[in-house]
Amino acid sequence: MLSFDPDKVSLPDGHYIAGQRRQCPGNRFAVKRPSDGRVAGELTEASAGVVDDAVCVADRALKDSGWASCSPRQRGAVLQRWATLIEADSQLPLLEALGSTRPIFDVVHHEIPFTAAAIRFYAECADKYSGDVFPTRDASLGMLVPEPYGVIGAITPWNFPLSMASWKCGPALAAGNAVVLKPSELTPYSTIRLAELAVEAGLPAGILNIVQGSGAVSGSALVAHPLVRKVSFTGSTLTGARIMSDAAYHGMKPVTLELGGKSPQLVFDDAGEVTDVAERILRGFTANGGQACVAGTRLIVQRGIADALISQLITRCQDFRPGLTWDENSRYAPVIDRRQAEKIQQIVDAASLQGGEILVGGQRFADTGDGYFWQPTLIANVSPDSPALQEEIFGPVLTIQIFDEEEQGLALASHPTYGLCAGVHTKNLDRALRAMRGIAAGTVWINRYGRSGDFIIPTGGFHGSGIGKDLGRQAFEACRRYKSVLIDF
Ligand code: NAD
Fold it and tell me: How remote is the C-alpha of 418 from its chain's centroid?
């Protein structure tokens, strides 16, 4: 029995600093439940002073606890225990399902196992990757010695709060850093519990701290803090640009930026069984109500298969039903809030005014009160300059473009602004590899759409979709700086 009563869930109040929940004076803000728009609770925003306190605590804990200098294997053992506690905790799934767009079924079957698996992956990295020794003349020794940055400032978005936190904290902690993390003010609760479990697992108090609040106040204070030596951010492209510039201004800090996307699903006539392809396309743009950076939201389909594929998609889109995230039968995510729902509506309406044809959906589900559930939407004949093709919508909206020749399809697939992911669907290996080479995107999936849960494969975008990688060995390496050493003897 996974269903639960959202009014009976005890919500963590305050920030989490030095291994304790901390109340601080400041502006209060309401946190709403995406499923029904009701206020779940109120939190106090971390002022610059509170952020300063959290960062100084982290810096002091690094010096006092020996976290950076202990054997990497010891750090790995703590992270392994943390992953086990994450899997066993009874509160974490409730906080995630109540406070985010993720239905409890998905949280239990995907979000929690994936969060634990990501932490385990970095537990294993802790003692596996070393520096380098260079060929030098006989009486010299040249080495590249990795070391942690110190305090890393992490900022996460509202979609997939637990996964996003684990992708930031896992590599940073495994590499011996301390972290101050600011989750999205829209989905703040589960991250606090995650940090509590880390301390229960043996992470020294103060090595992982959580501050709550808006980007403008708490987030920007974190980026600017002089003791924050690196910033790891996931969120929109516009905010990423702001953070990159703030991080440069306040101390030339390196940044990892995982940003927005507008990813193509390129389908050729020889893609194989239409039902299978339709399933991939459908999941690609409707998962988490379309609120996934990797959402495949531009269908670019060759003429010969287009009618059959589109007709299947229309039928399948009509099967979706809204449902509260705390109901175990719900599978479809609400849009995070009214503002996001209005943004989706504006873009869809603009596409329609510019001649786009709404084949299915195009509006909210009726009778869902202040829960904003959007109907899966297909739009054909979209004008090339329409925001529906140019901007990340972050909702379950798929645009459709039809092409005849391979080169045309490839030309449509690369986006002028974004380059996060691409799906290529063809049984012709040569063509698949030409597409893989031809599309400007940080990830290309061939005859599938979506990550595999193998955290060894990194993720990250080209162009406006970001800088650097989350996941994989690359994210671990990016949490260390490298000292070049030359010894004469
Ligand atoms: P957002 O950019 O509005 O906010 C993200 C985070 O940044 C929040 O915690 C917010 O409070 C904070 N923030 C805002 N302004 C800030 C500032 N000036 N300084 C410091 N912090 C600031 O993004 P969102 O709406 O929460 O999330 C959705 C976006 O995230 C989408 O664009 C999506 O594509 C992207 N995303 C990308 C990936 C990826 O791996 N590439 C993964 C998930 C989400």
Answer: 16
* Domain residue extents for the chain: 6-259+466-488, 264-453
Q: Which residues contact ligand 1 via a Cβ below 6 A?
A: 155-159, 182, 184-185, 214-216, 219-220, 223, 234-236, 239, 242-243, 258-261, 293, 392, 394, 420, 459, 461, 466, 470
The whole-model pTM stands at 0.97
Q: What is the CATH number of domain 6-259+466-488?
A: 3.40.605.10
Take residue 152 and report the two structure tokens written for it: 């890393």
Q: In the CATH hierarchy, which fold is given to the domain comprising 264-453? A: Aldehyde Dehydrogenase; Chain A, domain 2 (3.40.309)
Give the CA angle between residues 226, 227, 231 to the nearest 5°: 85
Q: Coil, helix or strand for 55?
A: helix
Burial of 404 (0-12, 13-18, 19+ CB in 10 A): exposed
Q: What gap in Å lies between CA 427 and CA 407, rounded to an integer?
A: 17
What is the token pair recorded at 1?
């029995």
- Assess whether pLDDT exceeds 90 at residue 452: no
Mean of pLDDT over the chain: 97
